[in-house]
Amino acid sequence: xxxxxxxxxxxxxxxxxxxxxxxxxxxxxxxxxxxxxxxxxxxxxxxxxxxxxxxxxxxxxxxxxxxxxxxxxxxxxxxxxxxxxxxxxxxxxxxxxxxxxxxxxxxxxxxxxxxxxxxxxxxxxxxxxxxxxxxxxxxxxxxxxxxxxxxxxxxxxxxxxxxxxxxxxxxxxxxxxxxxxxxxxxxxx
Length: 189
Prior knowledge:
Blueprint lengths: L1 H20 L22 H16 L5 E2 L16 H11 L10 E19 L3 E3 L3 E22 L5 E21 L10
Parallel strand pairs: 1-5
Antiparallel strand pairs: 2-4, 3-4, 4-5
């Protein structure tokens, strides 16, 4: 009887050991992290805010440093703002996202964007920290956005308001630096 009990204990120990080796039991799950190990849900609203901030910093949040302007060469500004940049600026000025489904929703459709350059000038050379002697090139755009706005209200009385002639004007500045002087010569320390 004692040998039979030993065999059962050995079989039980082997089964528990094999189950622990394949990951079925929490014995090999690693160190216990306490409350930090529990996943915390994040609202899609805050996740979108973080993604938008990263996108803006990556695409539009930096000022480029371009080579010097040449005498007799073109001194026009960079490309006009992209449609994405205009719509993101419009969203910051007049937000559409974040409505309450079935209670209050706003939609924009049939969007048409007209971009006009209203100013393009270069400042005189000056010393800019971390860059050196440089000129600041200013380019200002007036972007007119024509769209159809649909507002759906679901409570207390469900109704839809449709504005087919909605117009917003957004001003976007594209500033960038141009180096001044001979930038190929190394600077002695």
